[in-house]
Amino acid sequence: MKDEYYMDILKESGAILSGHFLLTSGLHSATYVEKFKILQFPLLCDKLCKGIADNFMKASPNVVLGAATGGIIISHSVGRILSSRSIFAERENNELVLRRGFNIESGERVVIVDDVVTTGGSLLELIDLVVKYGGHILGIGVLIDRSGGKIDFGFPFHSLISMEIPTYKPAECPQCLAGIPLTARGRTGKQ
Known about the structure:
The chain is of the alpha/beta class. The chain has helices at residues 2-13, 35-39, 42-53, 70-82, 121-133, 174-177; strands spanning 16-22, 28-33, 63-67, 85-92, 95-98, 109-117, 136-145, 157-162. A hairpin with a 2-residue loop joins strand 4 and strand 5 (95-98).
């Protein structure tokens, strides 16, 4: 029932796109979830973030950590709902780091949030970052798990929606093999 509720929010925002997409991971997919179509609507975003926050209410986190850029909005909204501090990591020299005076104190209770998980690479980096600072990870909350639940992060993991969306290496991508050009994300037309 809840999956349907959250899926309706995705559909209402126009976030589920069909085409031939190059993902951040370098893989290709015929389906893309454009998180910023959701995040542009604060009330819809808050409904989704409340769904994430509900998983951690009793845990009383001190900090909610996301990654720039989409994770900033999610972290902020979840942090507000949980009455926690909200911080975000940014890429510097191809590595996620805390900047802008952000810090995680040793022993602080941390919830990690993200928008869409495909390979889990960004979340694994955030986990390493929290461990480096000595924080205590309470769990991970995401809007969408594109892996269909196949990734084990070693911590409690909650996704609002689980979608098993096939991804391909470019050399194995059916659309590439058919000569279909990549679809530009965030605008109409081709890349």
